[in-house]
Design brief:
- This protein is of the alpha+beta class.
Length: 342
Amino acid sequence: MRATNKVKELTGIKPDAIPYGDLVSEAEPVVLKGVAVDWPLVQKGLESATEVTDYLKQFHNGKPVTAFVGPPEIDGRFFYDDSVTRPNFQAMTVQFDAFLDSIIEARGNPQSGYKYIGSTDLDLYLPGLRRENDLPLNHAMFQHRNLLASIWIGNQTVAAAHFDMSHNLACCMVGRRRFTLFPPEQVENLYPGPLEPTPAGQVVSMVDIRDPDFDQYPRFRDALASAQVADLEPGDVVFFPALWWHQVEALDDFSVMINYWWNDVPRHIDDPMDALLHGLLSLRDRPMQEKEAWRDLFDYYVFGPSERPAEHLPEAARGALGPMDDMTSRRLRAQLLRKLNR
């Protein structure tokens, strides 16, 4: 049983006319059909895999990269072993050119296992590639945080469903890809795994979405009902907002993807995951009536309108309740550190 709802598609969008503001404000996944189809990397992929690897190698600056390798029995799914305390694959430092060759050599041989180079910073490892293959990021939101452009190269791999804390533009370059997406409110129905260790830095769903075990994970039926699927061809781009869960399947035996991560918030705003971890430490195991009272306080101070807690106070008395700027964030961070280090 698989998800059947399709992600909304937009056709005829010119690369320099991507409505980034609308995408973020509407907060729904969208496929931009063919937006990147004219990129040289896509065109090389339409010729052959070796054309792609030869093209990529000319940009590599010689720095070793991190690669991930799994045996045939994982069926492409980079996940945990049976103990759920260790990954079912190995991470290793490799030479970029040689590893690309090994992916090509493994094509058509299921016993060669699964391998990929993941989330590799384009500017750091393949300088110059973005001059020929890049989206026009012509919106002010991209100035708030250091945008990260990464490349992913591998065979028929599966990234288990997880969420990222940034918005994502994923550009299918070579081979086909399938994204299965779930809105953030489905977290309980996705049966998240341990906070640590994780297969690749983020919490993953324990459900094998390709073949779900509904006896073990019965609530996953509810998650499937709200899931959306994006099947991407080379040149297609999918946008989805921060905190949307997504499983990513590379459907062909050689695939390349470029993605962009960013947040539409100023640089001084901290990582919300830190707050969640501290919430586990300070709130989770309190009596339920206390937790309900704290929920009301958080709704007032954090999750409600940002101006509400301070609107009745004189400006000079607002402190951390006023607009958050770099200096206020530094003071709050110092206050937290003093409390945590008591």
